[in-house]
Structure formats: structure tokens, C-alpha cells
Design brief:
- By secondary structure, the protein is an alpha/beta fold.
- The chain has one domain: Flavodoxin domain (Rossmann fold, 3-Layer(aba) Sandwich).
- The chain is built from 5 helices and 5 strands; from the N terminus they run E-H-E-H-E-H-E-H-E-H.
- Helix 1 packs parallel to helix 5.
- Bound molecules: flavin mononucleotide.
- The site of flavin mononucleotide has 17 residues, from helix 1 and strand 4.
Length: 170
């Protein structure tokens, strides 16, 4: 299947290591994988102007990097969200991407989703996982799983192997 991974970290560190491991596993299993490093893109928050639901006919009035992400929402079979934990939540960069889908309502093809989270501490995931699960349920996507990496788990072979195996056995 076609998998789009949205990496919501603004840098190439812990979340990116999780994303790379996922790509390795998914590619090994024969999936077509596209990584969109949305944390490094310029994507503003939704303006609630409703242009998309009126004159825009599904197009956002803001012509920023979201135009690079929208095709994935239209063509992928699975969406993988990846984010560092920022103050017990998903990054603002990933949150903006998740909210800008307002223009089309929900992914038109995807039926599955997963979430990768990186943090410094343990026990900081309740908010991020809850938001993710609520949005997936609202959009009708099946949650295939959530993998977290706290502190020293980040970049550890054990964690990266867990992710590779997860991605290989979707
Ligand atoms: C603005 C900011 C807020 C953060 N908030 C939390 C937090 O609430 N809990 C936590 O455990 N780590 C927090 N962290 C640490 C990051 O989640 C952690 O370093 C993560 O591995 C970073 O991922 P990255 O290397 O992909 O950027 C925060 C980091 C930043 C920059």
C-alpha cells in the first residue's frame, strides 16, 4: 500500500530516527512510502475563512507548503503521524497540518493510521494520543498503533527494531 509519513519535528533528530526506522520496515514489506517533513515546512494554521467550503471548492486560500501535503491526503492508503512531544501535545507544526485538512474534510483514500511519538520523559503522552485517536475516529481511519520513545529509548536499537517490525507487519 501507499504510506504517507508526516514528520512534525522541526529537526533531524529523535522523531526523524523513528521515521527512518518505519520507512525501513515498511519498504522491506514492499510498501510505497513517502515522507513529508512537515515540521520543516512553512504551514500556517487554518484561518477559518471558509474559502475552501465556498468559492475555493476544497482548495485553501493560503498558498503555503500545505499544497505539498494535500496530495498525500488524497492518494495514500495509510497516514503515519510522527511528532516530538511539546508540552504534552503534538508539535504545533503537525497540529497545523492535521487541522488544515479542514479544506477537504478527511483523507479521501486512507483507511489506516499510526502515530510515532518522541519525548524526553515517560508518561507524557495522554493528550497527544487522545487528540490523535479522536481525530482518526472522526475521520474514519483505523488506528494501527502508537509507538513512543522516551529519553534514552530514542535512537536505541531496541526501539528502532520495534518500529521496523511494526512497519513490516502492518
Ligand atoms: C518546546 C518543547 C517542548 C517540550 N515539551 C516536552 C514535554 O512536555 N515532555 C517531554 O517529555 N519532553 C518535551 N520536550 C522534549 C522533546 O519532546 C524531546 O526532546 C524529543 O525527543 C524531541 O524530538 P526531536 O529530536 O525529533 O525534535 C520538549 C521539547 C521542546 C523543544
Amino acid at each position: 500500500m501507499k504510506i504517507a509519513i508526516l514528520n512534525g519535528s522541526p529537526r533531524n533528530m529523535n522523531t526523524t530516527a523513528m521515521v527512518k526506522a518505519f520507512v525501513e520496515g515498511a519498504t522491506k514489506a514492499g510498501h510505497e512510502v513517502e515522507v513529508l517533513h512537515v515540521g520543516k515546512m512553512k504551514i500556517a494554521g487554518c484561518l477559518a475563512c471558509e474559502y475552501c467550503h465556498n468559492k475555493g471548492n476544497g482548495q485553501c486560500i493560503q498558498k503555503d507548503d500545505m499544497t505539498k501535503v494535500m496530495p498525500a491526503y488524497l492518494t495514500a492508503d495509510m497516514i503515519v503521524y510522527a511528532s516530538p512531544i511539546y508540552y504534552f501535545n503534538l508539535s504545533a507544526q503537525l497540529t497545523a497540518v492535521m487541522q488544515r485538512i479542514y479544506a477537504i474534510g478527511k483523507p479521501t483514500k486512507a483507511t489506516k493510521a499510526a502515530l510515532l511519538l518522541s519525548s524526553a520523559s515517560r508518561g507524557v503522552y495522554t493528550g497527544a494520543i487522545s487528540i490523535y485517536r479522536d481525530i482518526m475516529s472522526y475521520m474514519g481511519l483505523e488506528d494501527k498503533g502508537v509507538i513512543t520513545a522516551a529519553g534514552r529509548e530514542n535512537g536505541s536499537e531496541a526501539k528502532l527494531n520495534e518500529i521496523r517490525e511494526f512497519a513490516q507487519n502492518l
